């Protein structure tokens, strides 16, 4: 071969002649030929190695694998092919620059010596070692992964499964490799996995997440959530599918248990709501008799002692009704059924009305009740006036209750936030008995008061503050307290409210008073009008007697029916100006009785009908009006309230006087 061609090859080619000792053993070699690459490798500073002894340049050569292989080749006459030979020994002297290199060489006999061809593969070996290191790291990571990882071919053959999969399915490590993935999953799930793989192969999706039921070695079915991905292996020349599976049995059981617990809780809440509704109805019915008759008595001629006795009955009944309402409010809030209703309102007017309610009680105790509304408070705000009155009323009521004398100051301020939002702050301060520091947090807990003797001394259910705080938070605010024992307390109510931009002054009509209603009724009768006839429909005889007593006292002509069926019979044959209809009745309830009345063409088909019910949920009035009633009154019936509603319904019906002759 032409030396020029040999010299340009990236190979080292040398011919070695053996050097033997007196016993004929080979102890060294002499280079008798070396191409240019060989010279540069051994003598990088330049020169030729031909004619030199190898051990003179590298004394450690005699202990190297290459020396042993060269001797063996010469003695046996057989060539030696060493692929990926071991590293060269640490060079000394002039060969130190070869330290750490790796070569692959072939040794062929030639005459008494041999020819060695070698190529340096250091970079290839380093790359191989690095790849092996990465492979071991990934294998270790996969084997220690919590998720079960599987690599399969396009033909569903498992080529790798990590330890988590073997532990999950109960197989020995390596037992699944080479088997079809059909062995470890249900048929329909395997078909779904293959279908997903086809989509990934076609580039339609990059990943598929699905639930799969795996089959353990014992036959146990195990539900897992699997994420499928794929990659193309250049080495294998095929696509590999990777599955990451997570055992979701515990999650599914937890979800099932939570769903069951939620159903039970909802059922318990429903039972609680039904119980409270029934309790409300059962308690309001006798309360209606007590309070109704007491109100009737107040309209009669009573001695001073009798008037005081009736007043005690009314006060006790109202206290019992307040406790009942507190319990129902708390139940609705806890059940998430409390709804707020915001209307345009003048905060100054509303606070003044609330203070007026408590002025008589405060004056009896020698307490000066003062209200201060800062000019920063907007003229009109969007407020839930009912719940605002409930919160402020509770704070003032408590202040009056726990203060023996002195002052109670109510101060309202506002802080504008943005163009249309205002943060309202209402402070109610007193110089009463105060609250011990360690008891402050307890007063906002349901059924808890600062002292066990408080209930016995002052009364109450211990629900007012907890309910008020919950309502305040529903309105975007809170109730907080600062108190010092024997010196007094400051309760602070905050709430968020929308500002109403007032375009023109708004006049608020003056509400009718009880005396106004009486004067109107008497004036009508003196003018010669016939007393309006009212049909009272209620299955409770006491309720009918209460209604008859105060209606006749206010110059109404009263008729009775004990249920919906009897009411329809009378309504079909007689004329009535107004109907008071109880909702919950046997045989035929008030709602169905109204529906039949409106569907007919009798003399009272268009008569105003007012719903009477022991239900007092927020929104009931709107509900019954939407169902066709002309008005709504909750029990226990307050005379002023029902007379106001009756007057309103009668006034609306008067434009059709010919209905009586229909």
Automatic annotation (TrEMBL):
<dbReference type="Pfam" id="PF00072">
    <property type="entry name" value="Response_reg"/>
</dbReference>
<dbReference type="InterPro" id="IPR000014">
    <property type="entry name" value="PAS"/>
</dbReference>
<dbReference type="InterPro" id="IPR003661">
    <property type="entry name" value="HisK_dim/P_dom"/>
</dbReference>
<keyword id="KW-0902">Two-component regulatory system</keyword>
<keyword id="KW-0067">ATP-binding</keyword>
<keyword id="KW-0418">Kinase</keyword>
<protein>
    <recommendedName>
        <fullName>Sensory/regulatory protein RpfC</fullName>
        <ecNumber>2.7.13.3</ecNumber>
    </recommendedName>
</protein>
<dbReference type="InterPro" id="IPR003594">
    <property type="entry name" value="HATPase_dom"/>
</dbReference>
<dbReference type="InterPro" id="IPR004358">
    <property type="entry name" value="Sig_transdc_His_kin-like_C"/>
</dbReference>
<comment type="subunit">
    <text>At low DSF concentrations, interacts with RpfF.</text>
</comment>
<feature type="domain" description="Response regulatory">
    <location>
        <begin position="533"/>
        <end position="650"/>
    </location>
</feature>
<keyword id="KW-0808">Transferase</keyword>
<dbReference type="InterPro" id="IPR035965">
    <property type="entry name" value="PAS-like_dom_sf"/>
</dbReference>
<keyword id="KW-0597">Phosphoprotein</keyword>
<dbReference type="InterPro" id="IPR005467">
    <property type="entry name" value="His_kinase_dom"/>
</dbReference>
<dbReference type="GO" id="GO:0000155">
    <property type="term" value="F:phosphorelay sensor kinase activity"/>
</dbReference>
<feature type="domain" description="Histidine kinase">
    <location>
        <begin position="278"/>
        <end position="499"/>
    </location>
</feature>
<dbReference type="Pfam" id="PF02518">
    <property type="entry name" value="HATPase_c"/>
</dbReference>
<dbReference type="Pfam" id="PF13426">
    <property type="entry name" value="PAS_9"/>
</dbReference>
<dbReference type="InterPro" id="IPR011006">
    <property type="entry name" value="CheY-like_superfamily"/>
</dbReference>
<dbReference type="InterPro" id="IPR036097">
    <property type="entry name" value="HisK_dim/P_sf"/>
</dbReference>
<dbReference type="Pfam" id="PF00512">
    <property type="entry name" value="HisKA"/>
</dbReference>
<keyword id="KW-0547">Nucleotide-binding</keyword>
<dbReference type="InterPro" id="IPR001789">
    <property type="entry name" value="Sig_transdc_resp-reg_receiver"/>
</dbReference>
<feature type="domain" description="PAS">
    <location>
        <begin position="134"/>
        <end position="195"/>
    </location>
</feature>
<dbReference type="GO" id="GO:0005524">
    <property type="term" value="F:ATP binding"/>
</dbReference>
<feature type="modified residue" description="4-aspartylphosphate">
    <location>
        <position position="582"/>
    </location>
</feature>
<dbReference type="InterPro" id="IPR036890">
    <property type="entry name" value="HATPase_C_sf"/>
</dbReference>
